[in-house]
Structure to design on (202 residues):
């Protein structure tokens, strides 16, 4: 895991025990190296250390599956931290985040546990969503002040709509054709996808 330095000249290793980042931090790493764990750990640290409440955070990712995974990971990190803070002497697997949260006086550890428990109690209100879901939340929150169609629905994938349109047009165009359709439904779908993916198509 690496993040750019202030001058954007060199990459430096990211450590969850370093001081919490401020401003913009880019975490750059290949698949399977722990980016989701790191995001969950950062959320847990921000909450436990009193830098932000969970309802003040916006955690956004791409795709519904990634959003669900991230939501589960953040919740698990908070649960794990709460358990460790409740029983500091209990045996556990090595964990840099938990080790960091357990440092300090008994009072500091107690306050951290209280903050984490509070976050878990209000976890359903946490904004951990896809970009599309977040945009829809914002538009809905505007109510009548928003210049949008209240029945409009943001979708991540237009393919279902594309298939529906192609099926309607295909049936309308060829249902009564005596000589059969000029091309197959599969070819119609292929043409439609090509048109949708071409920014210059009319």
């Amino acid at each position: 895991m690496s993040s750019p330095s202030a001058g954007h000249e060199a990459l430096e290793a990211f450590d969850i025990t370093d001081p919490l980042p401020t401003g913009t931090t880019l975490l750059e790493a290949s698949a399977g190296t722990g980016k989701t764990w790191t995001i969950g750990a950062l959320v847990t640290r921000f909450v436990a250390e009193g830098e932000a409440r969970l309802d003040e955070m916006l955690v956004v990712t791409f795709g519904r599956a990634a959003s669900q995974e991230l939501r589960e990971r953040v919740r698990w990190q908070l649960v794990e931290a709460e358990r460790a803070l409740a029983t500091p002497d209990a045996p556990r697997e090595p964990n840099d985040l938990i080790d960091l949260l357990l440092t300090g006086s008994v009072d500091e550890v107690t306050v951290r546990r209280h903050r984490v428990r509070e976050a878990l109690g209000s976890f359903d209100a946490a904004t951990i969503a896809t970009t599309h879901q977040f945009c829809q939340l914002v538009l809905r929150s505007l109510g009548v002040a928003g210049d949008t169609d209240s029945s409009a629905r943001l979708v991540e994938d237009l393919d279902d709509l594309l298939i529906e349109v192609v099926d309607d047009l295909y049936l309308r165009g060829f249902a009564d054709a005596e000589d059969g359709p000029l091309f197959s439904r599969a070819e119609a779908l292929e043409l439609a996808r090509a048109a949708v993916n071409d920014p210059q198509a009319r």
